[in-house]
Amino acid sequence: MQIVPRKKKTLPVISTASLPDIIFILLFFFMVVTVFQAQKLVEIELPRVSEIETLENRSLIHHIYVGKPINATPDAAPVIQFNDAFHSLDEIPAFVAASCDPVFQGQCITSLKVDKGVTMGIITDVKTKLRQSDQLKINYAALEERY
Question: For residue 87, how far is the Cα from the chain centroid?
């Protein structure tokens, strides 16, 4: 009995001709759906806390920044920023109404990103304006303190 060597099976060559097309389609997709961060006009050093909780549905969150303007003098008064511009306290109710869909009216959250050196007076004024516009869910942004 003679042993006949088996022929090695060769795998078919995988065509890579469409690979550049797939890569460019993915690149284009991610460029279209990416949301870029708003322009930051306010210097903010977030306070550190011992306990922190993350929010689940980020699409219902709108941010209000309170701090000193970038490149301002050290004794400059704190300002309020939302929608890539400085605003006054009287413009907060219109911002809340425009940024929250009426379908989710009771679920929208206002996240206050406040510099740790800002006095509580301006924060109280912002909270009063939010309360007047029926925005009662408020979140304070902070960093977790690590030991």
Answer: 19
How far is the CA of 90 from the CAs of 80, 86, 132, 133, in angstroms?
A: 11, 12, 11, 11
Q: Is the pTM of this model over 0.90?
A: no
Please, which residues have CB within 8 angstroms of residue 132's CB and are 6 or more apart in sequence? 93
Cα 118 from chain centroid (whole Å): 21
Kindly report, residue by residue over 64-122, the tens digit of the pLDDT. Answer: 999 988 887 878 889 999 888 889 999 999 998 888 877 777 788 899 999 988 889 99
Q: Residue 49 and residue 114: Cα distance in Å, rounded?
A: 14
Rg (Cα) of the chain, in Å, rounded? 26
**Closest to 62 measured CA to CA, from 45, 38, 89, 87:** 38
**Exposure string (b/e) for 6-35, b if CB count within 10 Å is 16 or more?**
eeeeeeeeeeeeeeeeeeeeeeeeeeeeee
Q: Which residues contact 74 (CB under 8 A, 6 or more apart)?
A: 68
122 burial (CB, 10 Å; 0-12 / 13-18 / 19+) is middle
